[in-house]
């Protein structure tokens, strides 16, 4: 009987060891499978994160390219605006300047009571300093090459003689421009000493005509970058 018991014990131990090995192998396989799945999830998460970053970068690049395209498309219009070759409209002010209507004695200098080119220049400088984007005097559009100079009893602008009263239209912030010409000690006050009137009227829709002359450059050429 002893040998049989010993054999049975050995068989039982072998069976138990086999079962334990099988369980351990299954557990190891499950752990490996779970670890592989976790690694795969991490890899997919990294790929998704990189893809989202690339997408966001592409969106920014597309937006930049669209902005560049818009700037390129609008560039000719901006050049025309700055050159004064395009009619413009917008809010602003209309100024009217008239010669003095005071009675002047024969002993007084009559030139003090009429508007001169330098008076108009002072008004224009104040308007530009206040942010005027487009200006016209008696419908003569001011450009970078426009002259404002005395021509006898008249003023020459764009080689065109104009006479008083002068109507100056300016597009921009109406309040800022009105404040600029009416400030204490400013151009309006200095003209009023001689009875020269400078009236300011705000308007919501001012039309500034285009410069009708030719824009030519005989000596200036573009600087190559």
UniProtKB/TrEMBL annotation:
The organism's place on the tree of life at top rank: Bacteria
Pfam families: DUF881 (PF05949)
Coiled-coil residue spans: 41-68
Record-linked InterPro entries: DUF881
Entry keywords, A to Z: Coiled coil
Presence of keyword Coiled coil: yes
Record flagged with keyword Nucleus: no
PANTHER family linked to this entry: UPF0749 PROTEIN RV1825 (PTHR37313), UPF0749 PROTEIN YLXX (PTHR37313:SF2)
Family affiliation: Belongs to the UPF0749 family.
Protein name: DUF881 domain-containing protein
Organism for this UniProt entry: Megamonas hypermegale
